[in-house]
Amino acid sequence: MTAETSQTLDRGLRVLKLLADTDHGLTVTELSHKLGVNRTVIYRLLATLEQHALVRRDLGGRARVGLGVLRLGRQVHPLVREAAMPALRSLAEDIGATAHLTLVDGAEALAVAVVEPSWTDYHVAYRAGFRHPLERGAAGKAILSARQQRADDPGYTLTHGELEAGACGAAAPLLGVTGIEGSVGVVMLAEVVPERVGPRVMDAAREVAEALR
């Protein structure tokens, strides 16, 4: 901590981070031990965060992230899109296919940024806001692959005709970006995805991840 920072705000943000990293919530005692502060301080922090709907407590007293975080999260998409656009434009122009950034939204994959190539005679129309189950399509499957493999570099995923007849997809997950789970990919009209597309998509995913860190 420095003279220019707020200890109370810092502790409140640390509480939110701890709660975001657990699925089952944390008790006041657990938060007290993790932060190294007394229970009275934790009670005050939780009460303040509850007033802003950033934290909720269940009947058992366990604190969890509140729905107010979702309202803040909606403002993240424009910032994420802006950061990802240079890498997506480069990918679309290089491959000659529609490039996209997809993020997890519950059990669905949500396209939040899309760039179409400028020089091709035809390409797949793919719009920001398009949703599909995580279990279908390269974008969602790449995210699931990263979850399952828990590897530093799970590679890329290829699919054919899962979301649109005659369309192929290639996607690689975003890695090492705290608080964001997603993938970068391309979709094209082709029988087979060219060999160079997978590695190029992985490079683009690394570029986007770096821009978001």
UniProtKB/TrEMBL annotation:
UniProt key word Membrane: no
Keyword DNA damage found: no
All residue ranges annotated as the HTH iclR-type domain in the record: 6-67
SUPFAM superfamilies for the chain: GAF domain-like, Winged helix' DNA-binding domain
InterPro entries (alphabetical): ArsR-like_HTH, GAF-like_dom_sf, HTH_MetabolicPath_Reg, Tscrpt_reg_IclR_C, Tscrpt_reg_IclR_N, WH-like_DNA-bd_sf, WH_DNA-bd_sf
IclR-ED domain: residues covered: 68-213
Keywords carried by this UniProt record: DNA-binding, Transcription, Transcription regulation
PANTHER family found in the cross-reference section: HELIX-TURN-HELIX TRANSCRIPTIONAL REGULATOR, ICLR FAMILY (PTHR30136), HTH-TYPE TRANSCRIPTIONAL REPRESSOR ALLR (PTHR30136:SF24)
Name recorded for this polypeptide: HTH domain-containing protein
Originating species: Streptomyces viridosporus T7A
